[in-house]
Amino acid sequence: MASYQSIAVGTDGTDTAEVAVRKAAGLARDTGAKLIIVSAWHGQNRALLDPPTADASVPVMGERNAQEYVESAAKIAEEEKAPDVETFTVRNPAANALVDVVKERGVELIVIGSQGVHSLAGRVFGSVAMEVLKRSDVDVMVVNTESVK
């Protein structure tokens, strides 16, 4: 298995994001990597079928919600004994936030849940996971979250 020094995971506060956070935290623990937890936010209402790169690409209504999501995810990472955890929120579409963290923080692996891959919006526009897979310059692990839907 590859050894990573830094791993990023996105969270939007959903149960499926929690699965991805647990997986990323376990990987960080096992490899001694820094875990960077990211939550994207926006300041406007989200349309049902917005594409994943639109300004309203995640079900987060504002920065306060995003901060709550990363704090909750950090507790999960602590439960999983991730050795070094950093959290931040960013006003950006979710796919952009995850791809940008690679450049800004030197991330070597992005972990993301599979939520949306099989949704109507995911089929029409492509899911956040698919967008990250297409655009990332580093490894991307898509965690199967079908069991929690």
UniProtKB/TrEMBL annotation:
Which ranges carry the UspA domain? 4-143
Q: Which domain of life is it from?
A: Bacteria
Note the InterPro entries from the entry.
Rossmann-like_a/b/a_fold, Universal_stress_UspA, UspA
What family is this protein classified in?
A: Belongs to the universal stress protein A family.
This chain belongs to the protein called: UspA domain-containing protein
* Origin species: Corynebacterium atypicum
Q: What is the lineage of its organism?
A: Bacteria, Bacillati, Actinomycetota, Actinomycetes, Mycobacteriales
